[in-house]
Amino acid sequence: xxxxxxxxxxxxxxxxxxxxxxxxxxxxxxxxxxxxxxxxxxxxxxxxxxxxxxxxxxxxxxxxxxxxxxxxxxxxxxxxxxxxxxxxxxxxxxxxxxxxxxxxxxxxxxxxxxxxxxxxxxxxxxxxxxxxxxxxxxxxxxxxxxxxxxxxxxxxxxxxxxxxxxxxxxxxxxxxxxxxxxxxxxxxxxxxxxxxxxxxxxxxxxxxxxxxxxxxxxxxxxx
Length: 223
Fold this sequence. Notes:
The protein is α+β, with helices and mostly antiparallel strands.
């Protein structure tokens, strides 16, 4: 799957969010339903007939490293009028190439799942907390890739914040299988030796399921 993706995008080393999420979807990971609106098509932008409001709209460009730093995100879009206005604003941002529309996911318990190539240890997987809890649990853990599901579970249990995944004071437990699936697939991607870095931030976890809300990926340079 990864080789097919890279062949389709031959020559690229850095990918924009909608490309990465298309790959993740093909790998069976949960991402919001979305569509891309290319620059130059804003005046005739079709209504997202297969998307359900409310929507989020994000500027898309290989030249923009941080969407938030350029004011490149709009959320809570409830109708076509708001969508047209948001698209016009985002496409006016310097270096904007397109607008990526997504169905807004429910608020969940946020974590960060990442992968990188360590100079000493090779491909590794990272797990950390996102959202509100990052201020209380400043913890990031790493392990070598790839991982089986059992190894991913052992990795997850090393997390000091693991108790937050379990049932607590009437709050239902989070879907452990969903986050394990994401960790395992991430580890397999990193073990391919084709990827320098991948960052899923945030990943929203729910009592049933999960949703990858943002994603970045960069290939390893040849040689």
